[in-house]
């Protein structure tokens, strides 16, 4: 049953991606393709949620091993995309989010292992974990937006707009949405770091010091980017580079430390 559900979810994510890609070929069909793609993604995230529950929930706590955490991040990004799509022109983010969600689900299903440390349910540290995952998801959406913005800028700069004109909003709208996501993600990341200081014991212990330092550096990167936007009007390539740098630091902070501890050191 688990394998069947995983195959179904991956197939639905793939179908949603194909629907969005189909709109690249014809500007007349883009709105219909986007609606169809979003509809296909709804049952995908429902099945994905069932699989996450089965693999992550235990009586002793939550299993947030590196692949389970990645799958949770992919699912949450897809859910946020579906919730925001009726109000914001962000359907194009599915070009990045849907394959990411499918790949992380597949990796967790095929190669996931039981976590050696479980997040206790109902403990204060759970607030930190939840706020961290939500912050990563919003900043992940911002990173996907930055990647699409980089693609859009590249094609327009080389005067080969092609399908970009059809599927993506105007450049200024793309940049405005990027900074909306960054601002929201920055607030959530600030909450995550604050709750970490409040609820996580021995935050600067050997196992957590790299995560703490890298997360703090990422916070300063996003803070500098938002200040630069407000004070100096940063945009375009500058905004893209700073966004990608901040998210890479966050990925190294969380997933990098987990890979070292769980996979390499076996702790």
UniProtKB/TrEMBL annotation:
<feature type="transmembrane region" description="Helical">
    <location>
        <begin position="177"/>
        <end position="200"/>
    </location>
</feature>
<feature type="transmembrane region" description="Helical">
    <location>
        <begin position="133"/>
        <end position="151"/>
    </location>
</feature>
<dbReference type="Pfam" id="PF01578">
    <property type="entry name" value="Cytochrom_C_asm"/>
</dbReference>
<feature type="transmembrane region" description="Helical">
    <location>
        <begin position="242"/>
        <end position="261"/>
    </location>
</feature>
<feature type="domain" description="Cytochrome c assembly protein">
    <location>
        <begin position="45"/>
        <end position="264"/>
    </location>
</feature>
<dbReference type="InterPro" id="IPR002541">
    <property type="entry name" value="Cyt_c_assembly"/>
</dbReference>
<feature type="transmembrane region" description="Helical">
    <location>
        <begin position="212"/>
        <end position="230"/>
    </location>
</feature>
<feature type="transmembrane region" description="Helical">
    <location>
        <begin position="92"/>
        <end position="113"/>
    </location>
</feature>
<feature type="transmembrane region" description="Helical">
    <location>
        <begin position="36"/>
        <end position="54"/>
    </location>
</feature>
<protein>
    <submittedName>
        <fullName>Cytochrome C assembly protein</fullName>
    </submittedName>
</protein>
<dbReference type="GO" id="GO:0017004">
    <property type="term" value="P:cytochrome complex assembly"/>
</dbReference>
<dbReference type="GO" id="GO:0020037">
    <property type="term" value="F:heme binding"/>
</dbReference>
<keyword id="KW-0812">Transmembrane</keyword>
<dbReference type="GO" id="GO:0005886">
    <property type="term" value="C:plasma membrane"/>
</dbReference>
<keyword id="KW-0472">Membrane</keyword>
<dbReference type="InterPro" id="IPR052372">
    <property type="entry name" value="YpjD/HemX"/>
</dbReference>
<feature type="transmembrane region" description="Helical">
    <location>
        <begin position="66"/>
        <end position="85"/>
    </location>
</feature>
<keyword id="KW-1133">Transmembrane helix</keyword>
<feature type="transmembrane region" description="Helical">
    <location>
        <begin position="6"/>
        <end position="24"/>
    </location>
</feature>
